[in-house]
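lol forgot to send this yesterday, sorry. struct tokens for the thing we talked abt
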């Protein structure tokens, strides 16, 4: 069994997260900003299946209407052999804002007018807490944002998926006015796409 396969096997055996209620949150407290986009959705699945879907970057095009490509790179821009998020590594995301209509597959054509490229630094990978995060790479004081995603068990075979990004900095008001609505739609669409994937309805 390969190292990666063995890690996934172990995760499926021992991946147990603290249970929360459908009204509480597993996202960390962060300082307020100029604006926030967020999404949350209940999914009939296991925490290990939800976690594996979120960290399986090569599979994003198969279900994600927002992030159409996610590539982990070295500091000099080379692709890492294992395309899963690693703390303190950089990632390049090709996104659709607003998102593509659901459902999507890898062959779903993108809208070039809505395509954005984002360079991010992967800041937190916390499988024991069911949380991961990456931070937008920008000039100091221009735009500061860190996207957190979290999964947690809410009992009865259900998982709560949450995602939130708080934007601050000099460019945040302009971003809010031009792309804020589309970003909110994109966060909600990714949550719905994840639900479709994990509940087997894609």
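and heres what i got for the seq, position by position
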């Amino acid at each position: 069994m390969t190292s990666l396969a063995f890690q996934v096997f172990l995760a499926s055996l021992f991946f147990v997260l603290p249970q929360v209620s459908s009204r509480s949150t597993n996202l960390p407290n962060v300082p307020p900003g100029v604006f926030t986009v967020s999404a949350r959705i209940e999914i009939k699945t296991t925490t290990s299946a939800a976690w594996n879907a979120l960290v399986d970057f090569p599979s994003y095009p198969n279900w994600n209407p927002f992030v159409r490509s996610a590539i982990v790179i070295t500091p000099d821009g080379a692709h890492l052999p294992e395309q899963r998020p690693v703390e303190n590594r950089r990632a390049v995301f090709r996104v659709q804002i607003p998102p593509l209509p659901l459902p999507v597959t890898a062959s779903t054509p993108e809208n070039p007018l809505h395509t954005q490229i984002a360079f991010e630094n992967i800041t937190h990978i916390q499988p024991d807490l069911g949380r991961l995060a990456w931070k937008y790479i920008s000039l100091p004081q221009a735009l500061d944002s860190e996207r957190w995603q979290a999964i947690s068990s809410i009992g009865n075979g259900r998982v709560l998926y949450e995602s939130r990004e708080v934007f601050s900095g000099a460019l945040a008001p302009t971003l809010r006015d031009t792309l804020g609505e589309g970003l909110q739609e994109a966060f909600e669409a990714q949550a719905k796409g994840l639900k479709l994937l994990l509940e087997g309805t894609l």
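Confidence is low (pLDDT under 50) at residues 4-14. anyway ping me if u want another try
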